[in-house]
């Protein structure tokens, strides 16, 4: 998933020089450099924007900081304050567009620029609780207790996300992805309302403006709901996490739908012969459909670089 990041020594060196994670995200020169770093090491097909899904709440006016060892903190929480009291800061989105432009200008015509945003449900869980949580208890409870108020939050995030992804596309992104990291925490009815419906709205709006630009959906933890998600959201491709059996996904998903995934990031960290075996099994499972080989979620910060090299060599050398 996230190609650039903490597993690369050149990233850590730049981080030590420039400061905090958020400082790097909003420094378009630094963010462009970080986005390009993996392509200098590995023969990859595309660059994934170095940014974060919480840029949208920050642009909506919610305070954002990343605490070392603890993750993101947003304030005030929507449990304690109304979204209408925030002062929006859309200029924060413009800084991300600058990064996209700089990366696209540095890529060859054979390399793709990939943008992304968090899906409304996942972004809302952070905005409501002020931080990440294991089961999204506070946000799920709010959605049950006051669905009208929560719908207003989702609608606001959806509208800003459409504008944000459109801005990335106009700046040079050739495909965009919607990350729904916490989609798996919802019951089926709530999944339809808080995951499928807003993502369908985003996909529809983007396709109306940019019909040739693929929109990839990644509903992590969706499990057996993947087929319905693919059908009802209208995504151009679907990302699957490491818990999904590739053979099952190949069987139940529409035959023409491109799939992205789904090697376990921990297997990449562990390495060894099993890395080769499982990589080839994924390639074989999706041999009869368009497939973007990728991880099932983000790459771990302690992943050995030689394991990434080995993985890329296996994928590049496969002749299935």
Question: What labels describe this entry?
Answer:
51% helix, TIM Barrel, 14 helices, 9 strands, 320 residues, globular, two-stranded antiparallel ribbon, alpha/beta
Q: Can you characterise this structure?
A:
It is a single chain. This protein has 14 helices and 9 strands. It is an alpha/beta fold and 320 residues long. It has a single domain (9-239), classed as TIM Barrel (Alpha-Beta Barrel), CATH 3.20.20. The strands form 2 sheets. A 7-stranded parallel sheet has the order 1-4-5-6-7-8-9. A two-stranded antiparallel ribbon has the order 2-3. The two termini are 23 Å apart.
Largest sheet at a glance? Answer: 7 strands, parallel
- Average residue pLDDT: 95
**SSE order:** HHHEHEEHEHHHEHEHEHEHHEH
Please give the CATH class.
Alpha Beta
Q: Would you give the CATH topology?
A: TIM Barrel
Helix percentage: 40-55%
Count of distinct strands? 9
Strand order of the largest sheet: 1-4-5-6-7-8-9
Q: Which radius of gyration do the C-alpha atoms yield?
A: 19 Å
Strand content: 5-15%
CATH-defined architecture? Alpha-Beta Barrel
Explain briefly what this protein structure is:
The chain has helices at residues 9-18, 21-26, 28-41, 55-59, 91-106, 120-129, 137-145, 147-171, 188-209, 226-233, 246-252, 265-270, 273-285, 305-317; strands spanning 46-48, 63-67, 71-75, 112-118, 175-180, 215-219, 237-239, 259-263, 291-295. It has 320 residues and is an alpha/beta fold.
